[in-house]
Write the structure tokens for this entry.
Amino acid sequence: MPIKTIIEPFRIKSVEPIFFNSKEERVKILRDAHYNVFTIASRQVLIDLLTDSGTSAMSSRQWGGIMEGDESYAGSPSFYRFENMVKRITSMPFVIPTHQGRASEKILFSAVGGKGKYFISNTLFDTTRANIEFSGAEGIDLICEEGKDPLKPAPFKGNMNVDALEPTLLEKGIANIPMVILTITNNSGGGQPVSMANIKAVSAICKKHGVPLFIDACRFAENAYFIKKREPGYADRGIESIAQEMFSYAQGATMSAKKDAFANIGGFLSLHDEKLAMECRNLLIITEGFPTYGGLAGRDLEAIAIGLEEVMDENYLQYRIRSMEYLTEKLMAAGVPVMQPAGGHAVYLDAKAFLPQIPVDQYPGQALVCALYTEGGIRTVEIGSLMFGKYDQHGQLIPAPLELVRLAIPRRVYTQSHIDYVAEVIIEVFQKRNEIKGLRIIEEAPLLRHFTAKLQPA
Ligand code: F0G
């Protein structure tokens, strides 16, 4: 019989401790943190699933690259290695390094955003939306129908609703739409992939109207793997070739190298349009740095170049995607409402179904985040009305379409027994779900409020 067990495709050379505390201590920590886990110190967290961003374990090759990083102000060979790698994947001639994804967004939307402009997406991530809004423009999400029901499985729930795209372009006016953005995979919609057919269809509509298509490429390799596994015609194609095809339909891309480049910091903006690239480079120089380092050190550029190559390894991606499925299957078997199918970088709990007794204006997602921390020291993040809620003119909450809790799995960091522990804690909380109470906000910022909001039990 063929061996079925999928193992971690690495062995561990360097370890760091994790920190244990008691449930009583965690109750107090959470109260002092005003029920916002962003303000808890990482040493008070046992398993940190807050984000997969910047939390990857780098490989020995990446650490070797760190030592080889050339710190020249201009024209460092580390930059050229980085630039070549980005060009190899995207075929875009202009590559602009930034210190992280949102720096690329800030520069891009400063150049093309502004009042009266609209950016249409499958789903904009929070920093992307915030940078668009900060420029004075508006973001519009057009997610496909399957993407709206967390519990209903479908292969490509990150797809854009193509039927809605053209009418939206025409309604808002082509001249007012600087670009369409596909977030790949769709983080805020559950780490769900976008199919090649969808990218192609969106690109064809964009082309017809002369609107550029951009890709938010943070998790491009995970998306390429889903295409290989789920989309007819791609089973025999390599990940790099699938990724190249994805980018071939786009005029530009933003990327946070803190995700699918296994780097602890970094990002880039890549473009076909020379005029826009010049404008972005000018903004880069006054905010991030000279064009051959952006906001990064030479060593970071090396780590990113190597990480971009490593992430396209199929053994790695198989293990990566299987880890999410493994946790999802365990939770499903216990009846926990969990997003299906599993996403590429995270497992998402459906907090509305988990805690039906808590109304959306008492933030069921955040209540669940707090319960998971209290029960097992697991830090997760709410992706629901605390993150995306708005107020109408009467100060009433306009809730987010979904109330999710994300368990983002850092790359190459936790082992299967860590994941088994996580499953056990969630199932324990699920059994006690009737005891969990809602929260209300007592203090909040106008943008990205979830990072700093203070809450208390409702
Ligand atoms: N786009 C997407 C789809 C993201 O997931 C993120 C970050 C960004 C842009 C911004 O990149 O953090 O390097 O500035 N997502 C992290 C997360 C923070 O936890 O999902 P950044």
About this structure: Residues 23-52+313-457 form a domain with the Aspartate Aminotransferase, domain 1 fold (CATH 3.90.1150.10).
